[in-house]
Amino acid sequence: MTEPAARSGLRTLMGGNRDYRRLLLAALISQTGDWAISTALAFHVYRLTGSTLSTAIMLLVSRLPDVMLGSVAGTLADRWDRRRLLIATDLLLALGLLPLLLVRDPSHLWIVYAAALWTGILSTLLVPAQKALVPQIVAESELVRANALLGQSGQLARLVGAMLGGVAVAAGGLPAVVLIDAATFLTSAALQLTLRVTARPAPMATTMGRQWAAGLRLAAENAGVRLLIVYMAITGLGEGIFAALAAPFVADVLGGRADAYGLFLSVQAIGGIIGGLAVALHAGAARPRLLLGAGTIVFGFLDLALFTYPLVSPVLWPAYVLIALAGVPAAAAMAGFTTFAQTVTTDAHRGRVIGLLTSAQAATALAGTGLAGVLGGTIGIVPTLCVHAGGLIAAGLLVAKRHSCLNNSVI
Description:
The structure is a single chain. The chain folds into two domains: 1-200, MFS general substrate transporter like domains (Growth Hormone, Chain: A, Up-down Bundle); 205-411, MFS general substrate transporter like domains (Growth Hormone, Chain: A, Up-down Bundle). It is globular, with a radius of gyration of 21 Å. It has 13 helices and no strands. By secondary structure, it is mostly helical.
């Protein structure tokens, strides 16, 4: 695609689609609040208890709903009006934060765990509804570009929200962050209230259990869905490994301190933002499967270089460069993945597919975290991280190999 055509496509999407603009802004605002509260809670719980176990339990409780309820959430996204589901979820998220205003000492820790579980459940409901809604307001030819920008908003929210959460909890304590996050959810709900969404056919008059079972049958029968599940299982395992070993990699392999680790994660987010913009500008017309396979392969090789270069020269600055570069193909792969998941099935089943993929990724990420704890102490940090990089390359090659094997006109 030529430069003028690429910019014209981006202008058409952003300038001509007010509903997409509002959905994008709502996602940016609510995700910024998410990062603010998660950062503040992790810091506040540790300061309150002095226990890393307490912080770990809070994070585990917040992630469990993704594993247990992802496919159920997808079924709800297909059964109910998605716009109304998003609005209701935002309002309930804001309401569920208010008990955190009562947290004063370690005896109130159960309130934090309850709030973490509540927000985890509702966030699990939100993801398939939001991703399944995008094709209802964006033309199929614009889906890659739209998904790339949504992914970029998540990275920008990570940068701004983490900083906002740290500043707010230091200045006003946990209540300040709670009120900020509640305000972001209310703002997001107000924006989504104004969305004009194309009406969907009424769902079949079947029970939710039967619809859920139909989603599982779809996964078994649809080759594209099966491929995405395998992809998510492989890459989810690697995500868990990286999450567990990123800090030890910076500290023990590169000899960095806490500030180096913070910069390492920030640069990763910046790379994702650049990648999202690059895809939106230059790869908006790319085939989702090609974008997914090629992006994942390049991402894997850059990660492999990141994890192995310290064997030659364990200095910090190449790590910042490589993880920023890796953000570009990672963003391309995510845009391709989301678009592929949205188009591999019909609108009636879209939420269930996305919910099932969310569960697969969350479950294997937890398994990867446990695997990292075992392998990191036996074969070492670098070899274990290379397992993650190798998994990315293998997953990308799998997608690329299957590219010509599946006969699907939307890809």
